[in-house]
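Board notes (copied after class):
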Amino acid sequence: MSAHGPLPPPDATHYRRPDGVPDRPSVGGVILCPLTLDTATLEGAPGGWQVAVVVEAGPYLQLPKGGLEAGETHLDALHRELREEAGLEGVQILRELATLERLNYARTKW
């Protein structure tokens, strides 16, 4: 949230990298948990899903995410962010969904 209200979604200019903008690698995840869990098989039973979100200042819920720390792998950073932001441990990673590159809102990091 800015001083003038909620930030709009990134526009097309956020996806063009200007010269000289440094990298800021980060990770995030879409974390799903079945509402009903079969304790014998640890498989989801019919009934829907929960999605892990982070509630921060502002009008939007966010997926857990954050930057890599020095010497950290993407996977290590993901597990750390899930623990720090959502209190989740032992999350099973099923697959990578996508890699997205864009400017941050301040346009100081890629």
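Comment from the instructor: The helical segments are 74-86. The mean pLDDT is 86.
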